[in-house]
Amino acid sequence: MDTNRSVAFHTLGCKLNFSETSTLSRQLEKEGFEKKAFTEKADIYVINTCSVTENADKECRQLVRRIQRLAPESFVVITGCYAQLKPKEIAEIPGVDLVLGASEKFNLVPHLANLTKGDATKICSCDIDTVTDFKSSYSVNDRTRTFLKVQDGCDYSCTFCTIPMARGKSRSDRIENVVADAQTLASKGVKEIVLTGINLGDFGKSEEGGKKHTENFFDLLKALEQETNMPRYRISSIEPNLLTNEIIEFVAKSKRIMPHFHIPLQSGSDAVLKLMQRRYTRDLYQERVDLIKKIMPHACIGVDVIVGSPGETEDYFKESLEFIHALDIAYLHVFTYSERAATKALTIKPIVPMQERHERNKILRNLSYQKLQYFTESQRGATRKVLFESPKVNKENEGMLMLEGFTDNYIKVETPHRAEWSNQIIDWKLL
User: Fold this and answer.
1) What is the domain partition of the chain in residue ranges?
2) How far apart are CA 410 and CA 390, in angstroms?
3) Disulfide-capable partner of 53 in 40, 324, 338, 385 (CB 3.0 to 4.6 Å)?
4) CB of 20 within 8 A of CB of 149?
5) What is the DSSP string of 296-328?
6) According to the model, what pLDDT value does residue 205 have?
7) For residue 212, what pLDDT is reported?
């Protein structure tokens, strides 16, 4: 295949996937490929997949069908978690030319050089246990806030989750490399880095030349605070058992790390947490939230919750709902449990009917709306620092050009466009 061709990317799933897609895009542009929007005709389409839910799998198949209607002669490449977990299933989708598993994702360029349209779908995958190297990735020129991947994989065994099977064992970049990446991004004009990983708080596991290194996430935060000039860092998501008191106290004093925590809970019932094989109790979770709000009353706390998982009886759900209702948090990300092949959750009873799962999702999404309204109202009158992003057209306001941005504690702000404010940090009074 000629490398002087056009390529379009689409990302499904998490922030870490966005950082990896951006890195793949830069690799191909460096080789002479022209980047196009996914809605345009391109010679190659690359879909970086997620497989946390069944909907993510379905969306991948729908995207392939869309490409077939738009550009049937184009090459279609599928990579990411879905590609690692079910490569043969993907290879059977009409129109897919190449499936790249976890070990081959960043070898996209040489694989494209050997691709011929009309050949049988090529699968390049491996046993996930053999994936032990770490590939640094970050997004740039895609968003004002840049996602920087510093950790990958997971050693946990949550009964509902396929990520260890798709991503492999926990492994990390070295602190010195992360600091260097942060400085590179600062030189490009980036104002905020979102630190991302599969199990971010487990940062520190790495091996080089047969030598194991013992760094940790707290060490990383201290280095970024002291050794870089990046104005803002944001912690994407961190397990409550790995969010130590010293990390919370450090963030409270930090000039660079934003007072914003996203802490997965999954359930507010200890019985369900045990069935999920989570590594904490709700008491520990409560302690983390209480400490954050005690020393940072203005801090924003987001929470992941799964509804309808096997074993979540009506009483357990009510227990979870009451616990979450009492938490001093700002918003919820609510996920409806989806059966995943080869997970332990498939053996747990009782199974929650799908209609009931959706009802529980609706209840928690309504609670999330109320929580966000309350948190936003609590900040009214305060002056916070807002990082404004690129201008966007407000379709509801006669096409007016607007600037959107987020405060340090993650409150969304919108104002009529002013060119000099784009990608700038502005003191803003919340009205």
Assistant:
1) 6-126, 131-258, 259-275+292-378, 383-429
2) 17
3) 338
4) yes
5) -TT-EEEEEEEES-TT--HHHHHHHHHHHHHS-
6) 85
7) 77
**pLDDT tens per residue across span 356-372:** 999 999 999 999 999 99
Pick the CATH number of 6-126 from 3.40.50.80, 2.40.10.10, 3.40.50.720, 3.40.50.12160: 3.40.50.12160
Rg (CA), the chain: 22
Return the CATH number of the domain spanning residue range 259-275+292-378: 3.30.750.200
Give ∠ CA 354-357-362 in degrees, rounded to 5. Answer: 130
The whole-model pTM stands at 0.93
Q: What's the token pair of residue 269?
A: 């019932």
pLDDT at site 211? 72
What is the layout of strands, in order, in the sheet containing 122-124? 34-36, 6-11, 44-49, 75-80, 98-100, 122-124
Q: Evaluate the omega torsion of the peptide bond into residue 72 and state whether it is cis, within 30 degrees of 0.
A: no
pLDDT surpassing 90 at residue 323: yes
pLDDT at position 255 is 96
